[in-house]
Design goal:
The complex is a heterodimer.
Chain A lengths: L16 H18 L4 H4 L4 H8 L13 E2 L13 H6 L12 H5 L9 E6 L5 E4 H7 L2 E9 L4 E11 H5 L10 E6 L19 E5 H4 L5 E6 L2 E2 L9 E3 L12 E7 L6 H5 L23 E4 L8 E3 L7 H4 L13
Parallel strand pairs in A: 1-4, 2-11, 5-12
Antiparallel strand pairs in A: 2-3, 4-5, 5-8, 6-7, 6-11, 8-9, 8-10, 12-13
Chain B lengths: L1 H28 L7 H29 L9 H24 L4 H10 L1 H18 L3 H7 L1 H8 L1 H16 L8 H29 L1
Classes of the chains: A alpha+beta, B mainly alpha.
Chain lengths: 330, 205
């Protein structure tokens, strides 16, 4: 199953040679090396065996190669956004509100040692070391479209595994209805926090069924390498059918709750940023239309394209919202 | 002597004012307008408008504070016209790259989105000022009426800054710098007036 229509984009518009070689040679190599071990089957692989494959290096830093496997949950037929644009154009307000700032400032983020607390309505709360998380499941290559609420978009080759695989590992209580993600926050490290009026630490959240959806990715890398700090190192979530701000970066805690958590942008302006924030061309932002988007990295006269419902992942996720008024619950 | 000084300064102002445009043209030619080229063009032209318009408002208070540089008066016109030039480029960017020349989409945007409404209003306020920037127009209109008309520049500048605030994401404080500068320049006028009256009163007494 491939997501998206391969015919969406003419072949003339496909990835630059260098990028293509880099990405697909590696994938070709992996195909032979991992011969068909993919998502569904991959869960069956024991953590012990994976430890050999991944050999997580203590103190792994941005740019370190990750051992990855193919995934059926990848988007095809889209030109990948260049690594340069992915790493130089970021919204990461803890490191400055201008998109050019995080690449300069996020080096201060201490990504090792790093722990992730799993807490709240769960039978056995637990604190994971980042390297344990990295080796728990096979890391998959997953290309997703990424649509920012500001009406620009990218196509990103992420690396990670479904968040559901982590959640399944420790039995949330039946009363757990929502999941909250809390990002790292330290005023001494993230000196730029005061450039906006957001209430820190950055908080995001999902309904339980959204968090359990296989497309929701616990993410450790991009372009086959460890996440650069400005992209949310060392661990973040990616929810491809929602606006980018839902995909919290540099997570230190995952909390299970019985009610909807308060989330940063929603608190900042309820009218503009709904809790759900599913990509929806029919619900405008109060200040701009969401019908179209600007694809990053294209020349200015060729950026504009139509925004798809659920960012083009409707076939996979629309059923989560059956019977819901998505104009009201935007 | 003074004529030469103003000529040199005007040349420098021209060069300075053409830098933002030059950078955009160079960026477009070398395919280096940043990740989001449309946003780069929009932001650069908008920021140039506000900065140059603010500079044009600084000319008069500076002349009043420092009588020795009274000769810089003609810069107001140069700066004002450049501000209008960038405002027009900014508007053209919206028309071409955002609305795609779709008249209905533009009408809907203007009706619905207050930052666009106020932005268009600011441009419309600058339009008659640019049109009456010639000496001929001043003569034709008479100094008094011309001056009254050109007071609109204050409204346009305030609209421009509001447009900036309404356009940034809520909670973002980037427009604070230009807002403070504009506020100081607007306050400078009544303060200078008051100071002058006080001095004159003192002299009369």
């Amino acid at each position: 199953m491939l997501i998206g229509k391969p015919s969406d984009i003419p072949s003339s518009e496909i990835t630059s040679k260098e990028q293509y070689d880099r990405y697909f040679n590696r994938r070709r190599f992996l195909r032979s090396a991992v011969s068909g071990a993919v998502a569904a089957g991959a869960a069956a692989l024991g953590a012990e065996r994976l430890a050999e494959v991944i050999s997580p290096s203590i103190g792994a830093l941005a740019g370190t190669k990750l051992q990855t496997v193919k995934s059926p949950l990848t988007t095809s037929g889209e030109e990948l956004t260049s690594l340069k644009d992915l790493t130089n154009y970021n919204n990461f307000y803890e490191f400055g509100v201008d998109k050019g700032q995080p690449v300069m400032n996020a080096g201060a983020l201490p990504t090792r040692p790093w722990t992730l607390r799993v807490e709240g309505l769960v039978k056995k709360p637990k604190t994971f070391d980042i390297d344990t998380l990295l080796s728990m499941r096979p890391l998959e290559d997953r290309v997703y479209r990424h649509r920012c609420v500001e009406a620009w978009s990218m196509v990103i080759p992420w690396v990670g595994y479904s968040l559901s695989e982590l959640i399944n590992a420790f039995d949330p209580l039946p009363s757990a209805k929502y999941v909250q993600f809390l990002s790292y926050f330290d005023k001494k490290v993230e000196k730029w926090w005061s450039e906006s009026t957001i209430l820190w630490p950055y908080s995001e959240g999902l309904r339980m069924d959204e968090a359990m959806h296989p497309l929701t990715l616990l993410t450790f890398g991009l372009y086959g390498e460890v996440l650069p700090n400005q992209n949310g190192a060392p661990v973040r979530v990616v929810i491809p059918w929602k606006y980018g701000f839902k995909s919290a970066k540099s997570i230190v805690a995952i909390r299970f709750l019985d009610k909807q958590p308060s989330t940063s942008w929603n608190q900042q302006s309820e009218r503009e940023y709904g809790f759900y924030s599913n990509v929806n061309p029919n619900v405008d932002h109060p200040r701009w239309s969401q019908k179209t988007e600007r694809r990053i990295g294209q020349p200015f006269y060729a950026q504009r394209r139509t925004t798809l419902m659920f960012n083009g992942y409707g076939e996979q996720v629309a059923s989560l919202y059956n019977g819901m008024d998505l104009k009201k619950n935007f | 002597m003074t004529l030469n000084k103003i000529k040199i300064l005007k040349t420098l102002v021209w060069i300075g004012c053409l830098i933002p445009l030059g950078r955009l043209i160079y960026g477009a030619a070398t395919n280096d307008l940043g990740a989001d080229a449309t946003a780069t063009i929009t932001f650069a032209t908008g920021l140039a408008t506000l900065r140059i318009l603010t500079l044009s408002l600084a000319v008069t208070p500076v002349r009043r504070l420092i009588p020795a540089v009274g000769w810089i008066g003609p810069l107001r016109k140069t700066l004002g016209l450049f501000a209008f030039f960038y405002a027009t480029l900014h508007l053209a960017t919206y028309v071409a790259l955002y609305a795609g020349f779709d008249v209905n989409a533009m009408a809907a945007d203007i009706a619905k989105r207050r930052y666009i409404t106020i932005g268009v209003a600011a441009w419309l306020l600058l339009l008659p000022l640019a049109a009456t920037s010639t000496n001929w127009a001043i003569r034709k209109m008479g100094g008094k009426r011309w001056k009254r008309l050109h007071k609109l520049v204050y409204v346009a500048a305030v609209f421009g800054v509001i447009h900036y605030w309404w356009q940034v994401k809520s909670g973002v404080l980037t427009p604070i710098g230009i807002t403070v500068v504009l506020a100081v320049l607007l306050l400078a006028r009544p303060v200078l007036d008051w100071n002058q009256r006080r001095k004159m009163a003192a002299r009369a007494a």
